[in-house]
User: What shape does this take?
Amino acid sequence: MTGAPQLDHRFARDLPELAVAWRAAPTPAPRILALDEALAAELGLDPAWLRTPDGLGLLTGTIPPEGSQPVAQAYAGHQFGGYSPRLGDGRALLMGEFTTTNDGAFTTTDDGGFIDDGGFATRGGGRDLHLKGSGRTPFARGGDGLAAVGPMLREYIVSRAMHALGIPTTRALAVVATGGTVYRETPLPGAVLARVAASHLRVGTFQYARATDDPDLLRRLADHAIARHYPEVAGSDRPYLDFYRAVVARQADLIARWMLTGFVHGVMNTDNMTISGETIDYGPCAFLDVFDPATVFSSIDEGGRYAYRNQPAIAQWNLARLAEALLPLLATEQSKAVTLATDALAEFAGIYETTWHTGLLAKIGLTPETEEPKIAFELLELMHQEKSDFTSFFRRLPDLSDEPFTPWLQRWRALGPDISLMNRTNPIYIPRNHLVEEALADPGTHLDTLVETISSPFQEKDGRTRYSEAAPPGSGIYRTFCGT
Ligand code: AMP
Ligand code: MG
Assistant: This one.
């Protein structure tokens, strides 16, 4: 494709009650800061065209493609446990949906990860083009509708890494500096992030629909989600129960993958949890440096609600909120619906444990058939005690000879670990916190190299040692800020 894409508007068509037609704010002097050319090609977009004024107009929403109908989406959400009935796209727009790629089908380009996710999220077809930082909408409440360059580049970097690590995620197509100024604690350059996702349906979308007390809307929303993400349940005897079970399964698998790579999302509110099972909303997120399950990065998470080790429990809490929203679709009798939902949610634990344990064993070159299945958990305890750097530790394990690990290493070596499995499973390069900060402080010098390095995380690259090493001592406790 050489010009503007044709976008579909299934969301706005199926769910007009959740869509407010809206236009992006003008951008004084748009300039591309980052563009994922491979993703553009996957979507059938010509990267050269995206750099033209019309292309920039698409990426900032200021020149919507002909016939398109950008909308702000309504949703609700529990934020840090407290319910907000009306959040919605306060500074974002859904431009529309791509229905096919250049070769007529969506593919994944994941080059790693211990289990390929097989591109599940887009099985029903379609990918949203969504803009963040495109101006105030009717959902803006007190906000200015804008985003600063730093946080948008952060989302760009981290979501590219997640994709390369084989973790289901929304993807960043581009970051465009607007040429305008955003006022936070200080004046900052503004930007728009163009994001691509299987959809932007969230747990909070269902909470919003349920709160309208319109059973038809709730059903249409569920049918829309099933068609897009879980078409295989459409014909089942209990499609809505099976839909819920499928979301539970996807999320259990996703959270286990986060845990295996040391990813801390930082703000797992119900509006930041997708129905598709993709990671969404990279705000105060970060990867573990030293292994400490209590790690919290977000400056606003004072109680540690979203600490690394709490993520599986929080995911289940959020999924319980989804179940509450779905109850009228599960059974006519409320008590029956509650029983069905409770049993379905209970499936989370087994799925999570399987992915987590299998993945952890793969990290040390073993399979669940090993004679010592608990050996991986023992290693985590030692790593915690010794304050090991989570990412580099596994990659270096074959050459390790540190005293506190000696007895463990002897037992492990006797099991005959598969080193090539370890090398396919354990990344060398992740967007380490100090490297992300360095790239955000001076993108002109550091951004491209960092993105290139983390985009093939399992392959050793010459001259990139500093990208694989732990944060220099004295870097202190890393804090991320939600001031996006
Ligand atoms: P987030 O923290 O990005 O998940 O956003 C939570 C909610 O706040 C969503 O409803 C956003 O649309 C809204 N929001 C965040 N920042 C702004 C802003 N600068 N202007 C308007 N709405 C915003
Ligand atoms: Mg959000």
In short: The pocket of adenosine monophosphate (ligand 1) is lined by residues 87-92, 139-140, 143-146, 271-272, 281, 283, 484 (CB under 6 Å). The chain has 18 helices and eleven strands. Residues 239-261 form the longest helix (23 residues).
